[in-house]
Specification:
It is a single chain. The chain is mostly beta strands. The protein folds into two domains: 86 residues, Immunoglobulin-like; 691 residues, Beta Barrel (Maltoporin, Chain A), CATH 2.40.170.20. It is built from seven helices and 51 strands. It has a 22-stranded antiparallel beta barrel. Strand 10 and strand 11 form a beta hairpin. Pfam families: CarbopepD_reg_2, OMP_b-brl_3.
């Protein structure tokens, strides 16, 4: 398949050359009529066409693929009078030069007024902001995300330098995982409905609501201090600057799943939309106080059964709808945008799933078939009201609903109870997970004078993760048989119904004042003092409950073969009434916990221009936090008092950044800071929580905050307004980092270890191929090559002799390797992209094609203990191809081919000191090739 795709790519290039239309080009500059300064981001468009562009950092613009003829060129930008240049004549094969100057309107407007929002979805504008910024920030805009065929924020981040995604564990930045990163929405903190993760799963945010994603790897005082990897800021679409309507629809084919057998449980009222309804609800509230007895009932008290359905998986589909409108009220302006989207996917994976002991011999050996139906539904309402040039109000509401309905069949051996010679064990699990978030934001910008401006506002969020009615059954079957077996009430997993819900509420308030001082008419001598206060509060409640399915002696079901394909006719109301099975409530007081965290922070920094080339930004953040977790130990009563675990600290977090402009296009940046990280709520609770993989996680109430020291150095070159070459180096020293340590097969806990170090190199580039030649053809002019490379070294010191606490020494003494890389850290990461942004070379069609490849090095997935070697996620590469065309009529088509190499995704356990064999595969599967087609239509109104 790869050979066919590459051949098609080559033929498309050749066909484009053969069909090259004889068109012309308009080039020129846009400058301020008084000062002569370039107007970055000025809009340039041809009246009566869809052709246009924006001015780059030098004020230069280019409008290509213009059919011969005479046009009107309209040039505009915020607070400037629009200029219309008439009788612009375009000749085939020639360049027409048009230089224009704009005069300011009567009043200089605030930079945040709606009409002046730069198109931050454009990578060229974002690159310009990166060059001009005092601190190092990396951006990826909506346009680039679309060109690369990215559908969600999580997938977009891994296209950026030094960022990878570790399966089920979220985003890793420079080798640092979930606890070292922060997520923001429009610069306001995002809650995480997942009790085990600090950062919300960023894949739940579709790119249809995103303007751009900003990643700050260098800490700044206005950011919360529990960070060392990156602060990830998702900016939603700006309110409308024009009236528009966009509609889109798409389908996707997966080579492993689509049109093939698919096993599922369709029990919810609206599973297709990702809304379960009440069918999966327990007959008693999950947080109900007291043990529930199900005696003397004439029918099964649960509304769902243990049956399964087999269907033929259809094509994935997606829909999106965007609308925007602007309203003028004299000097005031209101912009409104609404964005809604829905997408789903059917995914299957098949492969081995083993747990090995220290001899590399299997303790459990299963072959797993897993089927998952995913949905994502999102709505965004954004408004911005510019009362006048000095006062603007912004408000946003975001709704996200994400669901996954997974059915798993595991066939194999559990060697502690099974006869490994003649029988297998078949484990069936049905798991539905629903994540929902509501986020409301408001902010106000006030310019009080030429020197003072303030910004204030806040946000309120609610989020929950609901896992209703996870059903598990275990059978003993003949070897390789999946249809008939005898119900087992022993062994790993057993049979049960499980419920869990986590609810989180978060509020945030802030106020920030900026005082500008120095020479008022010179940017080089203009300085800023920024002062701010932030308050953040979080409350979380977690409750879970399990009901064991118990088959009584003498039951007609126990020890007799049953039809596994028709379990809805086996575990029936009649069988329940006859006493063939019953439910045993395993609840006690430990099944509920609560947590709160309050953070008060004050910060200040000075953006000081020492001279025309050097700027320095010293700053300090003082952060007071109090965190309390309430829990009960296992076996406690429902009315027993809660035990409290507290972590209270005041942290002083200094930072300094510097920027030196070697020339107008070459910049050196430096940053140094102290940050910290806190234990997550669940890591403090010493109560066993058994997850869907049957692993028991027990927290540690003795955990302490970690201190982190960060240093960054970067050299950036901007050859043109759309090109970049960047070299970077970084170092991090973590004192008392919190690490996850596994003891035995399925026991996990958390401890402060001695120390960890991370350092590495980063390289990033974006170049047009034509820049390598003194003269080039039209074919070469459209080629763009960009990518990034990260090299990383990390080391974790878990030497137990360095700890006074006996419990810590005992657990860490079980760790096989006392020195190892950070969990999830890849020694190298590579992203490469080759694109052509003028494929058809026709003035009536905007066309592009892009081929992307990314690969990472082997990384530690699980830490080896009691003689087991570390388990590694093995390296694999991903190749994607995206082709899209947009016509002047507003109609667009996008074709995507993703994961063309379809590599095996593998986990391997390396041989420990006592192993009798070499490295062994513990998990392996293929995700399949994805082929997609999407259609869009954009209508621009008056």
């Amino acid at each position: 398949m790869l050979r066919s795709v590459l051949l098609s790519f080559t033929l498309a290039m050749l066909a484009a050359v053969a069909a090259m239309a004889q068109t012309g080009t308009i080039k020129g500059t846009v400058k301020d009529a008084i000062s002569g300064e370039p107007i970055i981001g000025a809009s340039v468009r041809l009246a009566g066409t869809a052709l246009g562009n924006t001015a780059d950092l030098e004020g230069n613009f280019e409008v290509a693929k213009v059919a011969p003829g005479t046009y009107e060129l309209i040039v505009s930008f915020l607070s400037y009078k629009t200029d219309t240049v008439s009788n612009v004549t375009v000749v085939a094969g020639e360049i027409t030069t048009v230089n224009t100057s704009l005069f300011e309107e009567g009043t200089q407007l605030n930079e945040v007024v709606i009409g002046g929002i730069r198109d931050r979805a454009s990578d060229q504008i974002l690159l310009g902001e990166r060059r001009n910024a005092s601190i190092a920030v990396e951006n990826i805009g909506a346009i680039e995300l679309s060109v690369k065929g990215v559908n969600d924020v999580g997938s977009g981040l891994v296209k950026m330098t030094g960022i990878t995604k570790v399966a089920s564990r979220g985003i890793y930045v420079r080798g640092l995982g979930d606890r070292y990163n922060n997520a923001y929405l429009n610069s306001m903190p995002l809650p995480s409905p997942d009790q085990n993760r600090k950062v919300v799963d960023l894949e739940i945010f579709p790119t249809t609501v995103v303007r751009n994603i900003a990643v700050s790897k260098s800490y700044q005082p206005e950011q919360f201090g529990d960070v060392s990897g990156a602060s990830i800021d998702i900016f939603t679409k700006d309110p409308a600057q024009e009236n528009f309507l966009v509609m889109g629809v798409g389908v996707n084919y997966n080579s492993v799943s689509t049109f093939k057998d698919f096993t599922t449980n369709q029990d919810g009222a609206s599973d297709y939309l990702g809304i379960s309804g009440d069918r999966r609800e327990a007959p008693v509230a999950v947080d109900h106080k007291g043990v529930v007895r199900f005696d003397n009932l004439e029918q099964d008290p649960f509304k769902t059964n243990f049956g399964r359905q087999k269907i033929n998986a259809p094509l994935d589909n997606n829909f999106n709808f965007d609308a925007g409108r602007t309203l003028n009220f004299g000097q005031s302006k209101l912009g409104i945008i609404f964005s809604g989207s829905y997408r789903n996917s059917y995914r299957s994976d098949f492969g081995p799933n083993l747990i090995l002991n220290n001899l590399q011999v299997a303790e459990t050996d299963f072959y797993r078939d897993r089927y998952t139906f995913n949905t994502n539904m999102t709505g965004l309402l954004g408004t911005s009201f510019a009362w006048n040039e000095n006062n603007t109000v912004h408000a946003n509401y975001l709704f996200v609903n994400n669901s996954s309905n997974t059915y798993t069949e595991s066939l194999g051996d559990n060697f502690d109870v099974d006869d490994r010679e003649t029988t297998d064990r078949l484990r069936l699990r049905s798991r539905y997970l629903e994540v929902r978030m509501h986020n409301v934001q408001a902010s106000v910008d006030n310019r009080l004078s030429d020197n003072w401006k303030v910004r204030w506002g806040g946000s309120y969020s609610t989020a929950y993760t609901d896992e209703p009615d996870r059903r598990e059954l275990s059978f003993v079957v003949e070897e390789d048989v999946r249809d008939v077996g005898t119900i087992s009430s022993t062994g790993l997993g057993g049979s049960q119904r499980y419920y869990q819900r986590s609810d989180e509420t978060e509020y945030y308030a802030f106020g920030e004042a900026t005082y500008s001082f120095g020479h008022p008419n010179s940017q080089d001598k203009r300085n800023r003092l920024v002062m701010g206060y932030q308050r953040r509060g979080k409350d979380r409640d977690v409750a879970y409950r399990s009901f064991q399915v118990q088959f009584l002696p003498g039951s007609a079901l126990l020890g007799h073969p049953v039809d596994i394909n028709n379990l809805q006719h086996v575990l029936t109301d009649e069988a329940f009434a006859n006493g063939d099975y019953r439910y045993l409530d395993g609840a006690d007081g430990s099944r509920q916990s609560a947590a709160t965290r309050n953070i008060d922070a004050g910060y200040a920094y000075v953006d000081l221009n020492v001279n025309s080339r050097l700027s320095i930004i010293p700053g300090l953040r003082v952060e007071k936090s109090d965190q309390t977790v309430e829990y009960r130990l296992q076996g406690s009563g429902f009315n027993d008092p809660f035990i409290q675990a507290k972590v209270d600290d005041v942290d002083f977090l200094p930072t300094v950044s510097a920027k030196y402009n070697v020339t107008d296009t070459k910049i050196i940046r430096f940053s140094g800071s102290k940050t910290m990280t806190r234990p997550n709520f669940m890591e403090l609770i010493p109560v066993a929580y058994i997850n869907e993989n049957l692993q028991s996680t027990v927290g540690n109430p003795s955990l302490e905050n970690s201190s982190i020291y960060n240093v960054d150095l970067k050299y950036e070159i901007f050859p043109t307004g759309s090109e970049l070459i960047s070299f970077g180096a970084f170092y991090k020293n973590i004192d008392k980092p919190i690490e996850q340590v596994r003891s035995g097969i399925n026991y996990i806990s958390f401890f402060n270890i001695a120390s960890a170090q991370v350092y590495g190199l980063e390289f990033e580039f974006k170049k047009r191929i034509s820049s390598f030649f003194s003269s080039s053809s039209k074919l070469v002019n459209g080629l763009v090559f960009d990518g990034n490379l990260s090299l990383l070294y990390s080391d974790v010191d878990t030497d137990p002799s360095k700890f006074k606490d006996a419990r810590t020494r005992d657990l860490l003494s079980s760790v096989t390797n006392t020195s190892r890389p950070l969990q999830g850290a890849s020694p190298y990461m590579v992203n490469l992209s080759l694109g052509y942004d003028d494929l058809l070379m026709k003035s009536s069609i905007q066309s592009s094609i892009e081929l992307t490849y990314n690969v990472f090095g082997d990384r530690v997935y699980n830490v080896g203990t009691v003689g087991r070697g570390d388990e590694f996620e093995k390296s694999f590469g991903t190749l994607d191809l995206v082709l899209q065309n947009t016509w002047q009529s507003g109609f667009g088509v996008k074709l995507t081919a993703k994961n063309l190499l379809n590599p095996a995704i593998r986990l391997e356990q390396e041989a420990g000191p006592n192993a009798t064999s070499g490295d062994e595969v513990t998990q392996s599967y293929k995700a399949g090739v994805n082929l997609g087609l999407s259609l869009t239509y954009r209508l621009i109104g008056k």
